[in-house]
## 1
Amino acid sequence: MNAVWVVLGIPAAAAALLALVPNHAAAGRLNALASGLTFATSLTLFADRPETTHLLIIDDFNIYLVALTAFVSFTTSLFSASYIHHEVEIGRLKAANLRLYHSMYQAFSFTMLLALTANNLGLMWVAVEGATLTTVLMVSLYRTHEAIEAAWKYFILCGVGIALALFGTILVYLTAQPSMGEGMAAMTWSELLPRAHEFRPQLLNLAFVFLLIGYGTKVGLAPLHAWLPDAHAEGPTPISAVLSGLLLNVALYAVLRFKILMAANAEAIAPGRLMIAMGLSSLIFAALMLYRRRDIKRLFAYSSIEHMGIITFAFGMGGPLANFAGLLHMTMHSLTKSAIFFAVGHIAQAKGTQKIADLRGLTATHPALGWGLILGVLAIAGLPPFGIFMSEFLVVTSTFARTSFYSLLAIPLAIGLLLAFGALILRLQGIAFGEPDGPGKPVSASLLPMYLHLALVLAAGLYLPAPLVEWFQTVARQLG
Amino acid sequence: MTALALQLLQMVLVLAAAPLLTGVVRKVKARLVGRRGPSPLQPYRDLLRLLRKEAVVAENASWLFRVAPYLVFAALWLAASLVPTFTTGLLLQPTADLIALVALLASARFMTALAGLDIGTSFGGIGSSRDMMIASLAEPAMLLVIFTVSIVAGSTALASVADYMREAEVGLRVSLAMALVALIMVALAENARIPVDNPATHLELTMVHEAMVLEYSGRHLALIEAAAMLKLLFYISLIACIFAPWGLAAPGEGAAVAAFALTAWSAKLLLGAIALAVLETSIAKMRVFRVSEFLGGALLLGLLAVIFLYVSRGI
Amino acid sequence: MKDLYFDTAHMLGAAVLLLSFALLFQRRLSGVINTFAAQAVVLAMAAAWQGFVQGAPHLYITALVALVFKAVAIPVALHRIVRLLMIHRTVETALSIGLTMVVGVALVTLAILLVLPVTSDSAALTRENLALALSVVLLGLLTMITRRNAVTQVIGFMSLENGLILAAVGVSGMPLVVEMSVAFAVMVAFIIFGIFFFQIRERFDTLDLHYLESFRGERS
């Protein structure tokens, strides 16, 4: 049987199964098991790549993203099991809600993997829409005033974004139709790419604008980011982790697929400039907003916006160095951000609040969590020897590799990075050190996922194994 | 038959047919709501009765008040006579320009509004101001409709438009469909029909047209009523001439064709009357401040019709 | 004959656009729901006609799906929700109706200016259809932005999807996957909306989003 079908089939089957399991503890374990199996199967894809069909494709670009997604899903499911256990204990969640939660978690996994492996543009679109719908349900899990408002905002904004992305997809089909004829062929990415130079450039331009705005809303680029902070803050923390760590990546992946198509057509406008502009504005905007945040999850949500801005900027710059940096940053951010959310989730449970002002002196009261958070924040702020320092460094140097105008962009880029660095370290001071106050409940935290991620990020910062480097380079070349 | 004879025949025909048209509309409305209703010939009797009665004029009425009914009647009778009803070979055909027709109607409306203001009663003032509000939106809408139609037909002369619509391969065009709907909306507003104004209302506060002519009696009132009936005939004939011109006789064709054309025209009038009656009995009158939204919608349709015309020509 | 095909398709597309304007024009909630139902009916007719003209039987299925879900099931359900939750029946608007219409016309012009120049080598029918579809999408967006009631926002969103379906059926040969998926997404979306309406009702007494927006999460 084709490995890709298995990778997709496990989460789909698990979603159906988990809808029926009433015991939340068993559901949590089953959830973790399913995610683990998905991860294991995704590793087999490296060994033996399946054939490209009209619907599904595994190529250099998405294979590592599939593995990354499956891995982070798996570790998050482990975190989720202990997190949910605690929430039920304190009565914040009822068992009835959890069936939906676990089922939707697997459904979300399924849609993300489908989006990554889709060869058909329409199928990719359906998968991204499915991912939005499943997370909307999960964000509203707590059923509070704020949670419902956040979920509503999320749904409306991302719904509109997805609709615009569909329009862009239709335009791509329209521009491909004269050369490729009607029907499935004109929607299949692997068949569109070799013929992309025949498409009409103006129509392709218009299509890309719609696609960038549409999928860009899901990436969280300013000014389309309004749903992101609320969804992160009001949903359960495992969802914040997968949103930041995975969904943003998948949405950016969709944009990049189209960027590759655009790059193959010489007369189309350089899509990079628009991406650079949006990336930089997201970076600066988010960096400034970091200073005023009072809620810890909201703080890290803006940090996600900032990092997605950096990644978009990197891919917008183009060229082998910048693309390499972008890919590396995607991976590092995914791992680091989810680790941070693992820490934050348990911290918020321990202290009973998400307000930064009430979280103080964690290294004294909960040393394991406190130090984990410190490491995570240092990593995300871009300090060596962690991996993010490497990728940010590469992004900055890539600006010098281009013409003088682009090297000027290094200035706002550096300013943004420094601003974010400052805000995060400032906040970290108070949270980690300082006088502990307020209640400090003991929490059965699952520390393994968090430290595992941080270890990987540290390892990547110190030494990237050669096969991985080569592989990033191949994809970077493909991205143009 | 010569153009002159045809023209005279048309003038007599429209004058004779207008009250019958109004009578038919009233009869169908009554039937639709389950009443027996007056005979369709009743408007003739009403007009004759009014003509025989004494015209009571207020003491402070000026010459305008006395002259206005004649002017209004003359303008509307002329307008109705210019529209090609059964033939395009009328004597005054060269003057039957769509924009000139709009101007004729506008002058009639202007005179009525002034007459409403003349005596100085508050109800007249209300009616005149409301009518002007309606006109300020209805006229641009009408002009946009004319614009669309003329661009399609290549001329503003009504006879040319009718010929073009009848003979050329026009097909179903979106712009023309929108123009038709906009024209119908404008016609409803101009003729003081539901949903804009209720012609049978007795409540002064809900009146628009009736309020302006509240002070008239006797022969003046007869002329004004006849003018209103002619206006209805005019609009239905206009819609039929532009959008459903089949059956129109060309100049120089024989009496048999003309006779057929006459029956065709009568059929269109009848259809229009029935449609109007059905529409009036099925919806309610709008509140006055919503009339501007209604006519804004007509204006919007006219605008869209023009936009789509340019879109389809640009391709 | 070719002209008749073109004209009818064009006519149906324009009718969908006109109903989008009519949606902006409504003051009562039941009027909004009924206008949406009418728009779905016309959309179904447009899809069926395209199926006939292009010889693509799968478009008939799209038409049927649009008819059953969007013209019947969803409006009926929405009417029930409005009645059960006793939602405030008039529509509060952020801009006056006249101004909204003017902005609407501006958006239609924008859509035409965007689409026509870049599609100069496609068939005339496709180009006009695409311009009309983009106009409907933009008007749906306008409805969502200028209306404060949750039900009207949902309908604005679905009207936006109507525009997308119009675009998809107009571009000849688009495979079934997209069409079915659009219909599927609408269905799932509505189920979610249903959950929301009851959740929102549990929390507040009104579906007026003004109360919802009083939570200014950004201050924390």
## 2
Amino acid sequence: MTLKSIAATAALAAASFGALFEPSLAQAQAKEQFFPLLVYRTGPYAPNGTPWANGKQDYIKYINATGGINGVKIAFEECETGYATDKGVECYERLKGKGATLIDPQATGITFALTDKAPADKIPLITLGYGLSASQDGNVFKWNFPLMGSYWTAADILIQHIAKKEGGADKLKGKKIALVYHDSPFGKEPIPLLQERAKMNGFELSLIPVAAPGIEQKSAWLQVRQSRPDYVLLWGWGVMNSTALKEAVATGYPREKMYGVWWAGAEPDVKDVGANAKGYNALALNGAGTQPKVMQEIIKNVHDKGQGTGPKDEIGSVLYTRGVIIQMLGIEAVKRAQERFGKGKVMTGEQVRWGLENLALDQKKLDALGFTGVMRPISTSCQDHMGSTWARIETWDGAKWNIAPDWYEADEQIIKPMVKVAGEKYAAEKKLNRRDAADCSS
Amino acid sequence: MFYRENGQFKSSYRADQQIFPILQDRVLMLALLVFAFAVVPLTAPEYWFRAILIPFLILSLAALGLNILVGYCGQISLGTGAFMAVGAYAAYNFHVRIDGMPLLLSLLLGGLCSTAVGVLFGIPSLRIKGLYLAVATLAAQFFVDWAFLRINWFTNNSSSGSVSVSSLSLFGLPIETAVQKYLLCLSLLVVFALMAKNLVRSSIGREWMAMRDMDVAAAVIGIRPVYAKLTAFAVSSFIVGVAGALWGFVHLGTWEPAAFNIDRSFQLLFMVIIGGLGSIMGSFFGAAFIVLLPILLNQLPGWFGITISTALASHLEFMIFGALIVFFLIVEPHGLARLWSTAKEKLRLWPFPH
Amino acid sequence: MGFFLETLFGGLMVGMLYSLIAIGFVLIYKASGVFNFAQGAMVLFAALAMARFAEWLPRWLGFESLVLANLLAFVAAMAVMIAVAWLIERLVLSKLVNQEGITLLMATLGIAYFLDGLGQTLFGNDIYKIDVGMPKEPMMVLESVFEGGLLLSREDLIAALVAAALVVVLALFFQKTSTGRALRAVADDHQAAQSIGIPLNRIWVIVWSVAGFAALVAGIIWGSKLGVQFSLSLVALKALPVVILGGLTSIPGAIIGGLLIGVGEKLSEIYLGPMLGGGIEIWFAYVLALVFLLVRPQGLFGEKIIDRV
């Protein structure tokens, strides 16, 4: 067995060396815009990550099927990260060599790691509704784009809604609000803002961490039962959300008093619990459903032609729609960049970054793209990499999500100073300078 | 024919006790070092450095440390990820809180902190053995995981719990590009490997191996179990701590406690077992196997022109990984290092049958 | 006081759930000396099989009844687990006879990875539902003694009863049936058992099948509670302190250990946790087990480790 096994091992070793030439020889197709898609279709967060990834891919296929970005087709390649930072970094390193011009890391942990590398590699990061809350300030974070919201805006909107429900911000005094959060950078992000608002409005904030991935929550909910808060904010992802709801049922906490962040308000989180989750509320960052024109177009141009990435009944679900929005914003950024740097040409990472910084999608443009009722107009600038800080509240009725009509906007009075302080701390740590006006208009 | 020691006579004990007594071995080692230090930095593409070589070097350092504990001293430890985390966070704190702290010093101090923690969690090994110890070391793993998430002081009061380092420099030379990072890791690895090899050949190494084989008999002939076991934990944790600091500083740049979780511990244990317990060379083989395999499995479908979904690719990776581990354990339970030494034995006779 | 009792009950019941998984570990260790790190993967695999068959069988065979679907799915999942046990014995265990413990441990880790990947390839990686009619709403007891009553989760209570029933069944199996006796003989001394004609290969298949059965029951209970998804295999990590606390070779030890760990975890999290910032239950169970081991290195009910020189 020994000589044979030695020979086999040697062959395997040789083959593996051969394999490693593969990524370095692969050239980016010069005529195509390349987007690497960092996804996770396995692991504890797969139920939520999969529709997101499918939405992104379907929208790219739709654009390709309808002429590309002014004729430029989009090339894409998926890479499985499993929500792990080191795998995300490996995917990034492997795919950036193919000419990556835009990345959505799909995970806050990976975002932190890539925020350091992206400026050197000149690849912009879209972190729609997640990532570093401080990256709203484009003057410090040139390459991060937390479009449409961050965890601070999310927490702020939730407190605003609760205040409205109570009958005014002054009625919050003396109330108890518990934050059940995923014990990771993602879950810990909103804490500074909630503590700030607790000071401002006089409510009592209790923090209840849940160890990742969040399947063991009995103690957390026993603690909730012990302290009997007036409201529970759920900051979870993946299986943690459905487990939280199940434990809430098991300990008898009324679901009507639970408010989830926009990452804890999708179908995979509640359909398992079904009618028992009735009354559970969450932030609705985007609309959903198959009525919007863009969904119809995707069905027509992608799924009806057998090119759909996921199952057809997934179209229009909350996370699928969010994936579509993310990719649409990226593609619109490329289109905007093309307006300045050359229509019909492939854009570089730097040019796409400029496009992301100069997005101006008003209601007319959104209607033309088919996103009526899905999102509000968004326009970014050098200082503001977020573009829009609006969201609504949705409630699960046992079978589907119902979005309440009121729009809330995050309170910049509270958030702006916090963003500034955090940005300055980051800049000091990394020895960066704030961008000046000249740099902003480049 | 080529690997014979004919004509190589040793005339001093010192020469006889060299690490590589055979001339061909020395030549090969020298060639390998020259290749690693001089040829690779000039020729390899950047992707190789960032995704393959640097993780390989750092993980083989960690596997080296673990091999000393598990392979030479026989104490099964599933808490290696925790010791890496201690090394990384300690080095981070030294680096960030003390202005002008040299990089090398913070790495080594990180290792020392890891030593302290390692010795602390090694104390149960004086009473608990075998599988019970393995599961008890998981206490270290989970406790350290929790500590770095909860105790804000360790993460310099970062609100998100994520820490990062930047603009590293060693003796005035910047450590920014992939090649510089590679050379830093390689130098540290060579130094530590030499140190480890000499340690295991010395009396302390023999004490470790005696504890591994028959700890009661070892105690009978006068080897102090406390000293042997705790020094094994200490040396192992030191090396693992430095590796952890390198992993955070050089490879990741920004990290959170999840980077050193239980999957990392299992990964290192796999490396050590597949590579070969009780063998310095085995740590390198094991690390290469574990680092290269997922990448190879990722590229394989592309070679055959088959496109499969990333989810399926990921599941297949798991399956093939598990199957290969079982395969290697069946074929050569003593690991790749044993395969290597068997090959060398055969080479000494070649082309003769015996 | 009332809340303390609630936490206590909750802890006891969670402990029973942990022992459901721990029993699988102990079974295999008792009979073959292998520490089966793949138990968590087996729980996941069994639960996935059950959940998916319960979904597919009505579609394939065209009937509606949930009870029938669950019954058939149980049978199908059991058949799958027996097949898995047989394959593991043929392909892995019989080739690794007489190897050191750590080699076998690593082999089971390899099996764990393989089963994880295979299960998700065959059955998918979304969250799947197991609906065996477990009541989800809690009930309030002792309303006369405590104001508002004490919260007791009915689902957990039923799960605890199932675990107790499983232990009784297994104890009877080991004590009263001839196969059980053969298993105990093999656990005692392989060579002696072989010399009196006990077929080792078949015994190991039986042991792994019984462990597979325990995994299936555990998978159904946990899957019904949490939903069946990849993270279910991580629950096994919680069962490890139970196993070592109770002793690797004792089934009653698994139960007692489970109860101790469950209660310890919950009480520590509620009363100690807030002082330390919360989230301590992840390591408390292990530290608790560690402390016990320092006093009794072989676990509470485990066999004393005798070293012969």
## 3
Amino acid sequence: MPEPRLRSRSLRRVYVKTPGGRTAVHYKHRKPRVARCGKCGAKLKGVPRERPYKMRNMPKTKKRPERPYGGVLCSKCMRELFVSKARLIS
Amino acid sequence: MIEIGRICIKTAGRDAGREAVIVDILNDKYVLIDGNVRRRKCNILHLEPTGKKIEIKKGASHEEVKNQFKKLNLPVWETKPKQKTERPRKRKKKRETKTTSKESKKKEKEKEKEDKKEDKKERKKEKQTNQEKDNKPQKATKETQETKDNQP
């Protein structure tokens, strides 16, 4: 039996094959949810799904696409926004 | 709407939301743009034309576009030339320096040893001279004492 604190499913289980042929269970923290578009709710591409300690060590350019509203809106919604703005001006 | 001198707004990529002017038409899909964006080739689908138009020649230079943009009070994108920065030294060189430092340390240690030896020699000499000096006046005093004793 594993330790009582490992019996809950708050930690995810990773089965690892050891060099001796035995399968060991490793307990790891679950990853956060996928980043989603603020307007349409689509999954954002180019935004990594990592724990905060990994995100902290990552450079800013690897954490979101390098364009206006990158990491907030999906590319479609951003384009719609700018097209509508341009049409309002003209 | 797509013609030379037409002011558009870029709707894709890093420069999205900024004003650009069409400088040249390359083919039915691509145009050359300049202005408040990096001067580059651009897909027509990534541009949203506005009602404004400026008078520039085909293939106008960046400075001509800049002058026209200033009249309209629009900002202009300026590309700064990259300044050369000193690269961090390679590891190999560092290792070399380290080895040299080790060698230098060894030399320093040897020097220290030699210095210590010399110091010891000097001290011995000093001691000897001191003893001689001490001995001489002692003898003298003894002699004087003897003389003094003898006198009365």
